C-alpha cells in the first residue's frame, strides 16, 4: 500500500541541529546558572552533561526538556550542593524559550520548500511530531517557510506522551483516518526510529555520517542523507 501520510521530526530532519541548538543551549545554560547563583563557567559542563556534543545520542538531540533539566540540575548540585533555587525544570524550559533568538535556523537542504510541495502534490498528508514546545516549533517552521504544508503539528504540550511512546502516532491515525501501513516516520535519531517501531509504522532515518547511518539502520526501512532524497525511496518502502 502506498504511503499517504509522512510524520517528520524537526531538529536535524528539517533544520540543521548544531547551528540552532548549540548556541541556544549555551545561552540557556548560562541563564539557568545565573538564576541559581552558579558561575557561568559551568556552562560547558552543563552542555556536556546534556550531551550537546554527543550527536544523535545526546539528550539535547534526542531527549526532552525534562531530560535536559535533569542534566543541568546534576551539574548545579555539583557546583552548589543543597541548591534549592526553584524548580530547575521550569527554569530550564523558560531559559530555552527566551534564548531561542540565539539559534540560526538553517534548512537541511536548499530546496526544502520544493520537497514539501512535491509531497503535497502527490496527495500525501504531512505531520510534525517533536519533543520541542509549540512556540519554538512554530518559529522554526515559519522561518523555513514550510508551516503551511503541515496538516498537523504535535509538540511537547504536557498533555500527550513524548517520543518514543507512540501516543502521537495513534492520535494522528485517529484524526486523519490513516492506517499504520499508510504512514511513514522520517527522523534523525534512534528515538524517532523507536517511536515508529513502537507505533507499528515504517521509518526512514536521516543521517549523513557513517556511524549515524549504522545506528539508525537497525530499525529503519531506509536511510537517506537528507529529506531531498525522500521522494526517490517512497516507492521502495
Automatic annotation (TrEMBL):
It comes from Candidatus Ornithomonoglobus merdipullorum. NCBIfam families: HAD-SF-IA-v1 (TIGR01549). The keyword Hydrolase applies. This is HAD family hydrolase. Keywords: Hydrolase. One of its GO terms (molecular function) is phosphoglycolate phosphatase activity. InterPro entries: HAD-like_hydrolase_sf (IPR050155), HAD-like_sf (IPR036412), HAD-SF_hydro_IA (IPR006439), HAD_sf (IPR023214). It comes from the Bacteria. Gene3D superfamilies: HAD superfamily/HAD-like (3.40.50.1000). Pfam families: Hydrolase. One of its GO terms (biological process) is DNA repair.
Amino acid at each position: 500500500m502506498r504511503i499517504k501520510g509522512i510524520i517528520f521530526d524537526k531538529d536535524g530532519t528539517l533544520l540543521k541541529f548544531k547551528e540552532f541548538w548549540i548556541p541556544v543551549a549555551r545561552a540557556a545554560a548560562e541563564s539557568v546558572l545565573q538564576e541559581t547563583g552558579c558561575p557561568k563557567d559551568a556552562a560547558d559542563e552543563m552542555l556536556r552533561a546534556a550531551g550537546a556534543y554527543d550527536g544523535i545520542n545526546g539528550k539535547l538531540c534526542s531527549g526532552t526538556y525534562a531530560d535536559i533539566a535533569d542534566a543541568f540540575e546534576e551539574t548545579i548540585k555539583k557546583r552548589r550542593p543543597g541548591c534549592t533555587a526553584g524548580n530547575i525544570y521550569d527554569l530550564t524550559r523558560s531559559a530555552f524559550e527566551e534564548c531561542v533568538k540565539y539559534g540560526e535556523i538553517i534548512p537541511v537542504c536548499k530546496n526544502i520548500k520544493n520537497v514539501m510541495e512535491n509531497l503535497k502534490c502527490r496527495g500525501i498528508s504531512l505531520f510534525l511530531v517533536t519533543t520541542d514546545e509549540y512556540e519554538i516549533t512554530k518559529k522554526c517552521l515559519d522561518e523555513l517557510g514550510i508551516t503551511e504544508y503541515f496538516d498537523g503539528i504535535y509538540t511537547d504540550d504536557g498533555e500527550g506522551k513524548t517520543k518514543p511512546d507512540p501516543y502521537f502516532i495513534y492520535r494522528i491515525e485517529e484524526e486523519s483516518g490513516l492506517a499504520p501501513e499508510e504512514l511513514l516516520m522520517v527522523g534523525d535519531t534512534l528515538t524517532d526510529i523507536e517511536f515508529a517501531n513502537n507505533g507499528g509504522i515504517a521509518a526512514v532515518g536521516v543521517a549523513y555520517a557513517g556511524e549515524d547511518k549504522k545506528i539508525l539502520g537497525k530499525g529503519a526501512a531506509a536511510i537517506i542523507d537528507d529529506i531531498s532524497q525522500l521522494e526517490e525511496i517512497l516507492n521502495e518502502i
